[in-house]
Amino acid sequence: METPTNRSQTRSTHQNIFYNPTFRAVIFQVIAIAALVFFFYSIINNALTNLETRGIATGFDFLNQEAGFGIGLTLIDYDETFTYGRTFFVGLLNTALIAVLGVILATILGFIIGIARLSPNWLVSRFAAFYIEIFRNIPLLLQIFFWYFAVLQVLPSPRQSLQLGDSIFLNVRGLSIPSPIFEQGSGIIFIALIAAFIIAMGYQYYAQKKQQDTGQQSPVLLVSLAIIILLPLLAFFIAGKPISIDYPALKGFNFSGGITILPELAALLLALSIYTAAFIAEIVRSGINAVSHGQTEAAEALGLSRNRTLRLIVIPQAMRIIIPPLTSQYLNLTKNSSLAMAIGYPDLVSVFAGTTLNQTGQAIEIIAMTMAVYLSLSLITSLLMNIYNKKMALVER
């Protein structure tokens, strides 16, 4: 039989559970997740109902249908007879191309400008400051328009091309340069190149261990470059020169042969790299300034030159501060590449979320796939930068 004392203890236990912060936090999170799931379910269900009412099919079967339109820049085989699924991969590779090239160029230019910003030379530091203040305060879309319409679209026609040497031609339709033709037996050169990189990495590890044990430094950069250049070159001659060159030539009203870098690609790459480099330069400057000046004074006392001090002492310590905000700039550059649609560069947004969406009407599926691609690219970038950041972080002993 339950006594008043037992009932009082039961109520007290229930009250203690309810007022427990951990229990309440779990309950509130469960309620919030349930509400969020219900919200998205309602939106998706309503959208699917509206599409069915209008007679628009749902699902991903449209990816197997023939696309019927051409794409100006493709890194894989493509023509009008390929499917919409193929257009997705073409747009994805074009987006990845501009993102990777943009990150590389923006990083190089940003580090140069950031270091120049701290130069004791007044003219160099003022030029770097002028660059930063100009390009980071002009909207990126306007910079894309500037490079495309005001610079590249005023170039001469192919017949009046600006010629650089005997085989490089610049005109309104792009930059035509020679391209390599890989013939039978060229695979050995790529194998040699991979082997050269592995040997160079092994030599770098050996040089670091030697320096730790004996304090003697080895010319890592020069030796590595020699290995990477000479080993594939040796394989090239041993294999009987299986790589030839295809030179561009004017035929009619345009150039054929070689590789043509489209003005849309050049304008977008220039704008993204120059714009993002202005922010990276400030990140680099602040990271270098955060390193104690005593480190520089100690290096000078040891007789190290300014360049060696910057490369061996200051930059490695500054990287621990530079990497986190640098990751954000890489993510911004990748997402900003979607502005390519404004000048007709065939990226994922233009080709898949633009033309394919207009032809099929599969809005939910196409937009969801496009969002998933940008989310995946951002997560991969963050993962790689976090790994690098962990490698550069100080290890507590």
UniProtKB/TrEMBL annotation:
GO MF annotation list: transmembrane transporter activity
TM segment ranges: 21-44, 88-116, 128-150, 188-207, 219-239, 259-281, 339-357, 363-388
The keyword Cytoplasm is assigned to this record: no
GO CC annotations on file: ATP-binding cassette (ABC) transporter complex
Chief site of localization: membrane
Keywords attached to this entry: Amino-acid transport, Cell membrane, Membrane, Transmembrane, Transmembrane helix, Transport
SUPFAM superfamilies listed in its UniProt record: MetI-like (SSF161098)
Membrane topology: Multi-pass membrane protein
ABC transmembrane type-1 domain sequence ranges: 92-385
GO terms for biological process, alphabetical: amino acid transport
Compartment(s) of residence: Cell inner membrane; Cell membrane
Superkingdom, natural source: Bacteria
Recorded family membership: Belongs to the binding-protein-dependent transport system permease family. HisMQ subfamily.
Xref: PANTHER family: AMINO-ACID ABC TRANSPORTER PERMEASE PROTEIN YHDX-RELATED (PTHR30614:SF37), MEMBRANE COMPONENT OF AMINO ACID ABC TRANSPORTER (PTHR30614)
Protein's recorded name: Amino acid ABC transporter permease
Organism field: Photobacterium aquimaris
Gene symbol of the encoding locus: glnP_1
